[in-house]
Amino acid sequence: MSVLNFENNSGQGPSNLTQLVSEEFRDYFQRNTNLKLIPQNGDLQFEGQILSFNFSPAALQKQGETDVASVNRLTISLQVRYKNNKDPKQDFEQSFSAFKDFQQNQNISSIDNAALRPIVEQLVMDVFNKSLANW
Q1: Could you give the CA distance from residue 19 to residue 1 in angstroms, rounded to a whole number?
Q2: pTM to 2 decimals?
């Protein structure tokens, strides 16, 4: 199998987001299959892009006359292209999104890799289930 880098086309997020997403794909598939990872042209090929890195209010509450976010949600969306050279009927191109909620006082710039990892892991697991669950 081969996994090309997932370039960050969102214009947002940490500078290492491409590396974080791409490496999680490689690591997850190697841990959960007996497939050999090669740089390119694998029998199974994954590629795509990071579409969005969006931090927005998720739960609003009234404080006097003002609505205030009690929780903010970070959502990451990917566009994934999967090519199965052994069974082209399995090929797909699809968007996947996952999120995690943070306290309202958490600044997006202070969110580190440890906080991003659960979101990225969920994205990779969703792609894994779509591509290889019936394998």
Answers
A1: 18
A2: 0.89
Q: Per residue in 99-133, pLDDT tens?
A: 999 887 777 777 888 889 999 999 999 999 999 97
Other beta carbons within 10 Å of 85:
12
Cα 20 from Cα 37, distance rounded (Å)? 17
28 residue type, one letter: Y
Burial status of residue 11 (CB atoms within 10 A of its CB: 0-12, 13-18, 19 or more): exposed
Helices 17-32/113-132 angle, 10° precision: 50
Torsion of CA 56, 77, 11, 103, to 10 degrees: 30
Q: How large is the C-alpha radius of gyration of the chain?
A: 17
Residue 128: name the closest of 7, 56, 24 by CA: 24
Per-residue pLDDT band at 56 (split at 50, 70, 90)? confident
Residues 6 or more apart whose Cβ sits within 8 Å of residue 104: 57, 68, 69, 70, 71, 72
